[in-house]
Design a protein that fits this description.
229 residues; 8 helices; mainly alpha
């Protein structure tokens, strides 16, 4: 038996009637699912009979056209409304789709090996003789009465210290930061030294105030290049 539909026992609406509903074995106002099921059942019963199948298809099309006209005119039969209400009641409640679980993202850890405290050890090989020769030449050039200006000498000394620190295994940023930090500290110490010296005190050498201020910075850079690993 079709869903919610019983064959009509009244003349003109039963399975043997010549109406579209009768040819499908339905009552007027049957649900759309019942119409579909009746069509399939009648086609199965007709088998290979082309005429019978054509009459079933024509009846099915006529039912659909009648339903379309009713909907366009705003007329819905009581049986169709009841069938539609039963279909909505029988439908299982829609399940709410669970929200996807966001994957846990682990933030990468920043390497801290470049921030390790420096250790003191005298260099070997080129890490020893290169800074010894380099800073000796820089010291002589700084103390000469008419030697090179202090600014390029300090710049070269900072570069030499950075290179030696890289040879000793320091990271690039750490080596640059350490070299510039020692340069700044040395210049500050040199400025304090100048402020403490009596300008009338003979120093034995005709040194300018900039040369005197550069001496502590050059010494600190030399010690870093030789000892810091």
């Amino acid at each position: 038996m079709n869903q919610g539909i019983e064959p009509s026992s009244t003349p003109g609406s039963g399975p043997g009637d010549d109406t579209p509903y009768g040819r499908l074995g339905l009552e007027p106002g049957a649900s759309f699912d019942a119409v579909q099921a009746a069509r399939q059942n009648r086609l199965s019963e007709a088998g290979d009979d082309a005429m019978a199948r054509a009459r079933i298809e024509a009846a099915y099309d006529a039912v659909l056209m009648e339903r379309l006209k009713e909907r366009q005119q705003g007329r819905v039969s009581t049986a169709a409304a009841s069938a539609s209400q039963r279909e909505q009641t029988s439908k299982p409640p829609a399940r709410s789709t669970p929200l996807p679980v966001m994957p846990q993202v682990s933030l990468p850890r920043l390497p801290v090996s470049g921030l390790k405290a420096p250790s003191l050890a005298l260099g070997q090989g080129r890490s020893l003789w290169v800074p010894v020769i380099g800073f000796a030449l820089l010291q002589v050039a700084l103390l000469l009465p008419n030697g090179l200006p202090a600014e390029p000498l300090l710049a070269f000394a900072t570069l030499l210290t950075t290179t030696c620190l890289l040879w000793r295994g320091r990271r690039l940023l750490g080596a640059i930061g350490l070299a510039f930090g020692l340069l700044t500290a040395g210049l500050v110490l040199g400025a304090l030294l100048i402020s403490l010296l009596d300008p009338h005190l003979p120093l034995g050498l005709p040194l300018s105030s900039l040369q005197i201020q550069s001496l502590p910075a050059l010494l600190l850079l030399a010690l870093a290049a030789l000892l810091i690993a």
